[in-house]
Amino acid sequence: MKIDYSNQVVLVTGATRGIGKQIADDFAGLGAKLILTGTNKDQVKILNETSEKTEKGKRKFYCVDFTNAESTEGFIEELKRYEKIDVCVNNAGINKIDYIAEVKTTDWDDVMSVNLRAPFMVIRVVSGIMKRNAYGRIINIASILGVISKEKRSAYSTSKFGIMGMTVAVSNELAKHNVLVNSVSPGFVLTDLTRSILSEKEIEDLATQIPAQRLAGPVDISNVVLFLASSFNTYITGQNIIADGGFVNV
Ligand SMILES: NC(=O)c1ccc[n+]([C@@H]2O[C@H](COP(=O)([O-])OP(=O)(O)OC[C@H]3O[C@@H](n4cnc5c(N)ncnc54)[C@H](OP(=O)(O)O)[C@@H]3O)[C@@H](O)[C@H]2O)c1
């Protein structure tokens, strides 16, 4: 079995760092052309210039901030120009933690905008392109905090439970068009997002509570995405695949 993405166009949101960058790198290594996003204009410019020089512009980065409705609209207009998008990975995500009584409305809105509204806007346009081509694979990056939860995670968990609902609903509509829609729920992954929320000590303690005895690396998540997005996935749709080293079963 050899997964091959040559001649495929793959969209990954939030591909500058962490899980999204790993997913983008792995798709690129398997031949895909990439549509990617980041929020920093200068970084996006440099990433596009580097890709132009080293791989004939195989990766096209757009600058988009999903907390900003105008910026999101602009990106959606760009997506409408594509005739072919074979794979869409809604990965960009943020977390804001606080007790429910303290959650700021602006933080709540930002989490919903990035984690839920943006995937909806992206899927709305991408599903039309995929239906026209009678082929597509959509993967939403959810979280184990969309399956279980803990204190201070009301906004994040609401958004992740929501993206799973969207995954199931949309999968029902699109399966007849050969467009399969699934979500992947990482456990704890060593990225900037995790390091911004947990101290080194908390990370060490956490590792001992995971049956695999370690946090995930981005590649542990990318491996699942690459399979679900491939033509080897012919019949899985509307599912949530948990990649957490066994954590939710303890
Ligand atoms: N890390 C974990 O343990 C974990 C666990 C479960 C689920 N997840 C999920 O996995 C996904 C990726 O997480 P990660 O840990 O790789 O995060 P990360 O390292 O913080 O990277 C987040 C990515 O999203 C982009 N992004 C951030 N704010 C954005 C905004 N306002 N608009 C558009 N894009 C934005 C970032 O772009 P810039 O670099 O330009 O800021 C970056 O590319 C998220 O959906 C997250 O909820 C992560």
Describe the structure.
The protein is of the alpha/beta class and 250 residues long. The protein has one domain (9-189, 218-241): Rossmann fold (3-Layer(aba) Sandwich). Helix content is 46%, strand content 15%. It is built from 8 helices and 7 strands. It has a 7-stranded parallel β-sheet with strand order 3-2-1-4-5-6-7, sandwiched between helices. Helix 1 (18-29) links the parallel strand 1 and strand 2. Helix 1 packs across helix 8, helix 3 (69-79) runs parallel beside helix 4 and helix 4 (105-133) runs parallel beside helix 5. The protein starts with 8 loop residues before the first strand and ends in a 7-residue tail after the last strand. The chain binds NADP nicotinamide-adenine-dinucleotide phosphate. Residues 14-20, 37-40, 64-67, 91-94, 114, 141, 143, 186, 188-189, 191-194 line the site of NADP nicotinamide-adenine-dinucleotide phosphate. This is 3-oxoacyl carrier protein reductase. Belongs to the short-chain dehydrogenases/reductases (SDR) family. One of its GO terms (biological process) is monocarboxylic acid metabolic process. InterPro entries: NAD(P)-bd_dom_sf (IPR036291), Sc_DH/Rdtase_CS (IPR020904), SDR (IPR050259), SDR_fam (IPR002347).
